[in-house]
Amino acid sequence: MSELSQLSPQPLWDIFAKICSIPHPSFHEEALAQHIISWSQEKGFWCERDQVGNILIRKPATPGMENRKPVALQAHLDMVPQKNNDTVHDFAKDPIQPYIDGEWVKARGTTLGADNGIGMASALAVLADDSVQHGPLEVLLTMTEETGMDGAFGLQPNWLQSEILINTDSEEEGEIYMGCAGGIDFTATLPLQREAVPAGYEHLRLTLKGLKGGHSGAEIHLGLGNANKLLARFLAAHARDFELRLVDFNGGTLRNAIPREAFVTFALPTAKIDALKSAAMGYLATLQNELGMIEKNIALQTEPVAGDALALTAESRDRFIALLNSTPNGVIRNSDVAKGVVETSLNVGVVTMSEQEAKINCLIRSLIDSGKEYVVEMLTSLSELAGAQTLVKGSYPGWQPDASSPVMALVRETYQRLFNKTPNIQVIHAGLECGLFKKPYPDMDMVSIGPTITGPHSPDEQVHIGSVGLYWQLLTELLKAIPAK
Which of 33, 290, 356, 431 has the greatest number of C-beta atoms within 10 Å? Predict the structure, then answer.
């Protein structure tokens, strides 16, 4: 038995513990999907998969509630795989290890997968718990949301019967989401030229680590450090002075996670090693002064490494550093319509280097299409100046807010009645699948709710135990309050 079994509501936490025990990072959700299908069939529910692997489960209405509007509870099957540098964990094979820490549930050294595992567990718990009253019910679990919303893109019309969809992928209890940002992926590919490292040079690796990382949408406004950008800044200031011969640069692992670590390997004249190390310590002090209030564990380390690889030419080095250092990152503009919400942003998520080329992968988000287009044009112009090729793909729409949404009004009224306070009606800068669902189901009324989750997409991810109980109360009371057709 998991220690989560002592928590309430027990069915939800038991199911979440089971979800944690089955590896399910993006592109590796099949074992979890098969478990859920078998579980559903054992309980006698109608269950079906579509051509992209999405799961749809149906449960008949509670007796006497057959005339209510049918509702779909929706979550995604995959989780973001992020771990601390010193954690040994294979996300495709090893279970997540959740534990209770005071008022929170966390994972040992990795992301927890509360995003969106708690939402998924709540939907399955509604199916499992016959004391929950509801009308005709569907549960939709989508594939590979975190790396491109594949399941939502592939969702076909006329499969769901519901008139209302409750998305469970929000991460702040007491907030009701009625809209979200859209996104698009941008990759700049810079060709590289290499040559032999001169005699009298030694190789070093410079590692920037200890940053918090986090969700590139929901947390982009917090001023978190981006390891790729911070390391590029150091190189821009010192590469020429120290005659650095750049061999390799890599940082970040996912385009939708703020990078926590970045690594650069270079050669430099032996006589300049001590000065380089001193400059690195000076830069660390600068970062601690600038970011220390939020990034308390930032570290910059140098270590000697063996090396006989070719290094970038001075021109290639300067072109790469200039492109990465000048690529914007973070908040581009705040919304005038949704006060306190970011309108447009980008995350310089992943930087990789091979023998022949360097790739800079960014995820652009915006509440408005023109915001996405503006950042794409800006990055394209920068890439052209640097001589890099560009690839733009994976565009997904935002979810346009509907102020007259009946289900949003019902959630607000239900929350007020349950907790005697008014919830915040919000538009979230993160991407939710609702915008994509509107294409095959344009008339479906949608809302998004969830418990409080902090640090999603990072090993600091945690879910607040008390907020899960409040979210469960709201969800089950909401299902009972759904009006007649």
Answer: 431
CA atoms within 13 A on the CB side of 482: 30
Diameter of the chain by CA atoms? 85
In this structure, the strands spanning 342-353 and 357-366 are antiparallel
Across 122-142, b (16+ Cβ under 10 Å) vs e yields bbbbbbbeeebbbbbbbbbbb
CA atoms of 117 and 398, how far apart (whole Å): 23
Residue 1 has pLDDT above 80, yes or no: no
User: Residue 405, CB half-sphere, CA atoms under 13 Å: how many?
Assistant: 28
Extract the tokens encoding 250: 């890599």
Residue 356: CB atoms within 10 A of its CB come to: 11
Beta-carbon neighbour count of residue 354 at 10 Å? 10
- Reading the block at residue 265, the tokens are 């390997």
CA quadruple 442, 443, 447, 448: dihedral sign: negative
Contact status, residue 84 vs residue 460, Cβ threshold 8 Å? no
Please state whether beta strands 453-454 and 445-448 pair in parallel, antiparallel, or not at all (unpaired).
unpaired
> Which amino acid does the sequence have at 379?
L
Using one digit for the tens of pLDDT, what is the confidence trace for 388-444?
999 999 999 999 888 899 999 999 999 999 999 999 999 989 889 999 999 999 999
3-class secondary structure per residue, 247-288: EEEEECCCCCEECCCEEEEEEEEHHHHHHHHHHHHHHHHHHH
The sign one gets for the Cα dihedral 452, 29, 144, 47 is negative
Instruction: Find tokens 């079906």 and name the residue.
Output: 48
Average of per-residue pLDDT values in the chain: 96
CA distance 174 to 419: 10
What mean pLDDT do residues 219-228 have? 96
Q: Could you give the residue numbers annotated as active site? A: 78, 145
Residue 82 has pLDDT above 80, yes or no: yes
Average pLDDT for 239-255: 96
Signed CA dihedral, 276, 280, 286, 290: sign only: positive
**Cβ atoms 446, 399 nearer than 8 A:** yes
Q: Show the tokens assigned to 391.
A: 């690839």
Helix (H, G, I), strand (E, B) or coil at 239: coil
CA 92 to chain centroid: 18
Q: How far apart are CA 437 and CA 62, in angstroms?
A: 27
Pair of tokens at residue 237: 């200031």
